[in-house]
UniProtKB/TrEMBL annotation:
Organism, scientific name: Candidatus Ornithospirochaeta stercoripullorum
Name of the featured protein: Dihydrofolate reductase
Gene Ontology molecular function, alphabetical: NAD binding; oxidoreductase activity, acting on the CH-OH group of donors, NAD or NADP as acceptor
UniProt similarity note: Belongs to the D-isomer specific 2-hydroxyacid dehydrogenase family.
Keywords assigned: NAD, Oxidoreductase
The D-isomer specific 2-hydroxyacid dehydrogenase catalytic domain, residue ranges: 28-299
Pfam families given in the database record: 2-Hacid_dh, 2-Hacid_dh_C
Database matches in InterPro entries: D-2-hydroxyacid_DH, D-isomer_2_OHA_DH_cat_dom, D-isomer_DH_NAD-bd, NAD(P)-bd_dom_sf
D-isomer specific 2-hydroxyacid dehydrogenase NAD-binding domain ranges (all copies): 133-242
UniProt xrefs under SUPFAM superfamilies: Formate/glycerate dehydrogenase catalytic domain-like, NAD(P)-binding Rossmann-fold domains
């Protein structure tokens, strides 16, 4: 198998030790940086004459950086790649200039599913949390609607359905296999009005909930955002959270958005600000997928 001449980890990338060791099989020279570059000039200097780099969600690698790295042939993203538009690498520029960019998907879903179940049980039963209803409530019979229904959404839905929840979903396309399992598609407004719990599982940068949607959702509901970024317009979400009858849950401040500091200490907000998806197992799977992409690049 071919090797890269020079591979640079341009900042912290989170690979497991076994993967870092394995990298030596695929590059003649490896240079590692464990801090983020302070600006584009430093990033360009770090890349230098490398023909391959590894990068996580930061730093940004725009066209202005790629244009100055004439030897670069491969960018390996050690993070989720949902779309060109949401990526921290200018993939459109890279494609036009002979630079291959590979990202990964679906490595932290199980941790996210566990977080959703943990949060719901804590709130429904009032474990170190004010009771949602007058008495503890089971997941059994709970009407849960998913906005966005990709891998993590479907995984979470299947687990909650096994616990007795009634599952509906809204997505760009119908999921026939899920419908055969007893889950039901609904239009967005219908789902919002009928669900007791709404779980948003949207791609990074997708905002579907605005003032009108929150009016349809109403009060006395639970909303859980498992997306990497916000799923709702900030003023509309803040206004909804200001009603103490509503409960908002997100594992990270990034999932809350720019209003995090304003709402994080409210009694109806649960946000530990720790990524639920980044478990030991997720780091292993992420590392494997990054290495698989490198092998694919070198074997093409």
């Amino acid at each position: 198998m071919k090797k890269f001449r020079k591979l640079v980890e341009v900042g912290p990338i989170g690979l497991q030790p076994w993967a870092e060791e394995e990298l030596s099989n695929y590059a003649e020279t490896i240079i590692r940086f464990d801090t983020l570059p302070k600006d584009e000039d430093e990033l360009v200097a770090r890349i230098g004459d490398a023909d391959a780099i590894l990068v996580r969600t930061l730093p940004l690698v725009p066209a202005s950086v790629l244009a100055k790295c004439k030897d670069l042939k491969y960018v390996g993203m050690c993070c989720s790649l949902y779309s060109k538009e949401s990526a921290n690498v200018d993939i459109s520029y890279a494609e036009k200039h002979g630079i291959t960019v590979y990202g990964i998907r679906d490595y932290g879903d199980k941790g996210v599913t566990e977080f959703v179940v943990y949060a719901l049980i804590r709130i429904l039963h009032g474990y170190d949390w004010p009771l949602w209803r007058k008495r503890p409530k089971e997941i059994t019979g709970l009407k849960i609607g998913f906005v966005g229904f990709g891998t993590s959404g479907q995984m979470t839905a299947r687990l909650l359905k096994a616990m007795g929840a009634e599952i509906t979903y809204y997505a760009r396309s119908r999921k026939e296999d899920c419908e055969r399992e007893g889950m039901h598609y609904k239009a967005l407004n219908e789902l919002l009005s009928e669900s007791e719990v709404v779980i948003t599982c949207l791609n990074k940068g997708v905002i579907l909930l605005h003032d009108e949607e929150f009016k349809v959702l109403g009060n006395g509901k639970i909303m859980i955002n498992t997306s990497i970024g916000p799923a709702a317009e900030m003023p509309a979400l803040k206004n909804w959270i200001m009603n103490d009858k509503n409960i908002f849950i997100s594992d990270t401040s990034g999932g809350v958005g720019e209003i995090y500091q304003e709402i994080k200490d409210r009694k109806n907000v649960l946000c530990p600000d720790v990524s639920a998806g980044m478990t030991e197992e997720a780091y292993d799977l992420m590392s494997k997928k990054v290495m698989d992409n490198i092998k694919k690049m070198l074997s093409d």
